[in-house]
Each structure stands twice: as C-alpha cells, then as structure tokens.
Amino acid sequence: MTVPADEIRKKVRLWAALADDDLRVAQHTLDIADQCPYRLVAYHAQQCVEKYLKAYLVFSSVDFPFTHNITRLLELCAASSDWAEDITDAEELTPFAIAARYPGEDEPVTRSEAQRAIEVTEHVRRTVRAALIAQDISLWPT
To answer: Is cis: bond before 37, omega within 30 of 0?
Structure first.
C-alpha cells in the first residue's frame, strides 16, 4: 500500500517539529545557572538528532527499527542521501539516549559535553532541514 505524498509530508513535518522541541529544551536547559542537569541537555540534543534522521527516513519511505542508535540511522539515511557522511560526528550523541535515563550507566555529563552536543545537533538540524527543503518539504520554524 502506497502512502499518499501529503500524508508523508505531514509526518515529516511532525517529526521535525518534535525534534525542534527537543533542541529548544536542550538550549534553554543549558541556561540554568545553578545545578544545570547537563545529562538532560545532552539527552534532548540526541533526541533532536534522532528525530531529524527519522524524519528524513519517513520522507524517503525507509522503514527504520525502533532504535536510538545514531550510527544505524545514519547508515539508513546514507542509502538515499549524499549528506549523511557530513554529519557522522552525531554518532557521539548515541550514548546520551541511555545515560540520561538510567542511573549508573555512564559518567556524568559535563557542561562542555552538553555544549558540544548542542553544537553537533544544530549542525545536523541544518543539514537535514536543507535536504528536506530541497525536496519541497516546507518546515517551520526556519
């Protein structure tokens, strides 16, 4: 069964909107002056990347597994894109999907790691959005 193009575009926009919410949470949380939960900054940055990659996969009609593994999602994106190799630094965010939610699973996240996570995420966001916009997917905000 073929999914109508309008339905695909709607799903892509929903994935992107959820991803943008995660990035906003990460950015604003980093502004907390006292006892900032850096692990949550990194977690929401990872979630933004994951959702943008999944948005692209939805657009490309690629089934993807239930996974938080950025490397696996990038592999799937690479099959139908020429930009995936430009954002492989996003792979370093994968551990934050688990470490933030389960105590004792990893070392505490530092401020510099949280800042780096946001920088990587912003790069991924720009890259994937540009790819989607080039395919006439209207996304908001810019």
So the answer is: no
Distance CA 54, CA 80 (A): 13
Q: Domain coordinates of the chain in residue numbers? A: 5-134
**Nearest-angstrom CA–CA distance, 55 and 62:** 10
Q: Which residue has the tokens 């995660």?
A: 22
Which residue from 80, 83, 64 is spatially nearest to 15, judged by alpha carbons? 64
Say whether pTM exceeds 0.90: yes
CATH architecture observed for domain 5-134: Up-down Bundle (1.20)
41, 118 contact by CB (below 8 A): yes
Calpha distance 142→125 (Å, rounded): 10
- Banded pLDDT at 103 (limits 50, 70, 90): confident
